[in-house]
């Protein structure tokens, strides 16, 4: 009897350990174009199999759908939605507000038609949804989404009712070895980002034979082991940082140029539905994650986005990512940002060519470059012949601020560029204005210096706080005495819009990084 007691105790401890250590979730994200469907069907037919499978419904052959539905009903598979082409959401969502929500709704309907039920989960390429992407996924009614492991081994609440389930991305077949105790609970076999197309089935087979696994749905219910969420979304393979890498910045800038060009065309009042459709299709193709991997050739992205530029009637960027003719160049400064516009449509002396915003001894210094103007010692500020209006969006929130210009003019500002402050300079004075209810109000006088061919405006630090490189700017000028702005620091297309007749044009702010 004494000999049996240690054995019973060991068995009891093992049973408790097993009960407290549930099977870890397993996720397979195949490259569907290179997928061996027969081999996958064979793996999923094993009674021991249990894993989540991320599929784009449009890329799933109709002949494969019946057995997928049967495997789901048998509890061996959980099907998750992924978007066709695996768009890199941190790029797509900020540059095209609303486009992701539309695609999620459309492909969710296609998923329902293909598999007979709504997907409970969504998988973003590289598990990198980005802030805007995460909000769209949560609003789409999904129960869980995939995340990188980081320092987390249990699911957490990502947004609303949406749970984030952490996975460690398998980098090779070595991941098939039995994981050490305490390792992250999930493993992702991802051919869209981590593994070469067609290589994931071998890894998946090894994993299924090495340990017991579960679908992500079970892990999503096992939430709150630490009671906190990560401060930054832990995507795998560093994919969340791709956009900030040097080649990633060039790709992001190129994609933003295309999205901005199509938006200008859409707001021009002369856009055709067919051209807009072609442009949107090009943006979808350009957002594919393959264009944003480190080392990806920028020429491929430029070629994919070319139809969007052509549909908009704007120049395609060069193959090295430099903007085409007619765009505005933006560059960061040590304490601000600088914008250099293309050759203005008008050669009038008061038309703007550049804008530089920087902190000088805490104050904000705005240097407004013009085509040229002559000093006028008789004027209060030492110049005459022009007025300047600079509208500033400091919070970057759509609809938070004013979308109308001062003076009740006919022009409108895009909702996402609504302004909170404005600097107005006339030959008589310089003043800072702010949004009010119902009308804007003059806040304070500001110092102005005429330094041909530029005007320098200094705003005290106490009046405008924050990081000027993150703000949006809309710079308009007019000849003195005019009741309408006639010059704008913007792309050539927007310069032409300023004087357009008919529907009031929608003007857009300049930003260091397009949203």
Description of the structure:
By secondary structure, this protein is α/β, with parallel strands linked by helices. The chain has twelve helices and 23 strands. The protein has helices at 4-20, 37-45, 65-73, 89-95, 99-115, 130-139, 200-210, 216-221, 246-266, 273-286, 298-312, 492-498; strands spanning 24-29, 51-55, 77-81, 121-122, 144-148, 156-159, 162-169, 187-190, 213-214, 329-333, 336-340, 352-360, 363-370, 386-393, 412-413, 421-425, 430-434, 441-445, 447-451, 454-459, 472-479, 487-488, 506-507. The strands form four sheets. Strands 1, 2, 3, 4, 5, 6, 7, 8 and 9 form a nine-stranded mixed β-sheet that branches. A six-stranded antiparallel β-sheet has the order 10-11-12-13-20-19, with no helix packed on it. Helix 4 (89-95) packs across helix 6 (130-139). The longest helix is centred in the middle third of the chain and has 21 residues, at 246-266. It is elongated, with a radius of gyration of 28 Å. The chain starts with a helix and ends in an 8-residue tail after the last strand. The relative contact order is 0.10.
Topology:
Elements: H1 4-20, E1 24-29, H2 37-45, E2 51-55, H3 65-73, E3 77-81, H4 89-95, H5 99-115, E4 121-122, H6 130-139, E5 144-148, E6 156-159, E7 162-169, E8 187-190, H7 200-210, E9 213-214, H8 216-221, H9 246-266, H10 273-286, H11 298-312, E10 329-333, E11 336-340, E12 352-360, E13 363-370, E14 386-393, E15 412-413, E16 421-425, E17 430-434, E18 441-445, E19 447-451, E20 454-459, E21 472-479, E22 487-488, H12 492-498, E23 506-507
Parallel strand pairs: 1-2, 1-8, 1-9, 2-3, 4-5, 5-7, 7-8, 15-23
Antiparallel strand pairs: 6-7, 10-11, 11-12, 12-13, 13-20, 14-16, 14-21, 16-17, 17-18, 19-20, 21-22
